[in-house]
Each structure stands twice: as C-alpha cells, then as structure tokens.
Amino acid sequence: IYIQQCTESFCNHDDYNWDWSLQHVSGKCLSQKLFTFSARAPRIFHIGECGVHHKKKDCSSRLILNKVRHTLSTAQRALFPHQLVVLQAPIKKTKTHKGNGGWGDKRDHALCRSFAEDTTPQSVQAAQLIPEPIEALDNWKKNETLRRRKYLREKYFLKS
C-alpha cells in the first residue's frame, strides 16, 4: 500500500490529529484499508487534564500524576513481556469522520505536500513556506502590544 498516492487526501483533511487523517485516507483513498496493532493497555498517558479539552472542577495535576504512577506500578510485570500474543479483533464499522479542524491553513497543506513529493532533506523547503522564527515572534509581540494598547484605550479612555 502506497500512502504517497493519497497525499492530497491526507494533507488537506482538516484535522490537527494525524491519526484521524490516516483513518480518513484509509476509508476514502486507499484500495485496501489500513490495519493497526494496538496494545491492550496504554504505555503513554495524557496528564494534561487541566487544560483545553477537559474542564473539570476538581482538576489537580498532582492527583492525575499520582494516578498514573499507581497504574504503572500495578501493571509493571505486564509492561515488558518476553513474548507477544497477537490476536485479531473483529473489524469495527466506523462512521465517516469530517475532521476536528485546526488544519485549515494552506501553508500547512503545502508543507505537508512537500514532505510527500521528495523525502530527501534538501527537498523540504520549509523556510519558504513559513516566516523566520524571529520574524514571526517579533510580529506576534508587535500585534500583542497593539491589542493591549487598544484594549486599555477603550477600557479607560473611551468611556461612554
């Protein structure tokens, strides 16, 4: 299976998660669906519960970290088995996923396509697609300063 033939479908799918983009390509572009291996239990944990995706009232990074440590210590013997048993699970019917957004910038699409065209380091011309880091930071600082000035002006000097 050559995923490179599905570059447009992968690079233009409006989802910031590459795994959802792969699932999209598997269902829409490839002649054969992709299959994956997955562990019965995770080896990687999300400890950033106190952020954008989760709005819990009782949010404590320390509690979350302690829970992960407890889980790992309990599962220690099973984490690194001497042999693996591979089982085939029934294939799940999946709905068409429209994407979570966050991947709509044409520069991201162009950069993604450039990786697929030729994968040699010389071929990836990322510097032409995005501004220099220092220039981008300077622009952000300048815009942030202007936004703050406008806010202060409106709040304290333009009272109705």
Structure description:
InterPro entries: GlcNAc_II. GO terms for molecular function: alpha-1,6-mannosylglycoprotein 2-beta-N-acetylglucosaminyltransferase activity; metal ion binding. Keywords: Disulfide bond, Glycoprotein, Glycosyltransferase, Golgi apparatus, Manganese, Membrane, Metal-binding, Signal-anchor, Transferase, Transmembrane, Transmembrane helix. The chain is mainly alpha-helical. The chain has a domain at 129-159. The chain is 48% helix and 0% strand. It contains 7 helices and no strands. It has helices at residues 7-12, 18-28, 61-74, 76-79, 106-117, 126-129, 133-157. The protein is flat and about 70 Å long. The mean pLDDT is 76.
Brief write-up:
It is found in: Golgi apparatus membrane. With about 160 residues, this protein is mainly α.
